[in-house]
Amino acid sequence: MGRLQKCCCCASTKTGTLITAVLGIILSIITIVLVWVVNRHEISFRTFIFAEEFDKKLAALDIPRIILTINLCFTILICFLLIVAVHKRRSWLMLPWVVLGIVLAIGLLISVLHTAITYYLDDQDHVILATCILVGGLFYLCLYLYLWAVVFSHYLDVRDEEERGRYTKAPYKR
């Protein structure tokens, strides 16, 4: 995979990485607030693992909301870790975000496809909604993967710098 040299054609990968971390923190906080402020009947949390009756019991006890909140708190922690890693130039501190990022991208793809297909197969006519979810979700996935590539490129740059030493060795072996 080729490395990106710039983020959005004007900023360095370091700046893009910091922006990505800050966006992750802001979006996680907004999501936590929305999950707990929005009325239960307006948002449906389902696990799709258990029987429908057990799933309703879990939702009544706010278990899915609690799990989502814990996951978002870990996302905030990993984004803070990414900010520290950029400032201290430590690649091993960036690694949790890089791994989490690709796992979240896979989860996002599955979620977008599942939601869109569910609406397409619904007895009611939700074709427009399903198409909007599919197009919007895939656009968001592409944007997310681009930001992940920016962070990954910066991770590789920092890792290479650590391997050869900051200023002690020449970048080329002659």
TrEMBL record:
The keyword Transmembrane helix applies. It comes from the Eukaryota. The chain crosses the membrane at residues 16-38, 66-86, 98-121, 127-156. InterPro entries: DUF4728, MARVEL_domain_protein_3. Keywords: Membrane, Transmembrane, Transmembrane helix. This is Simila to CG10311. It comes from Papilio polytes (Common mormon).
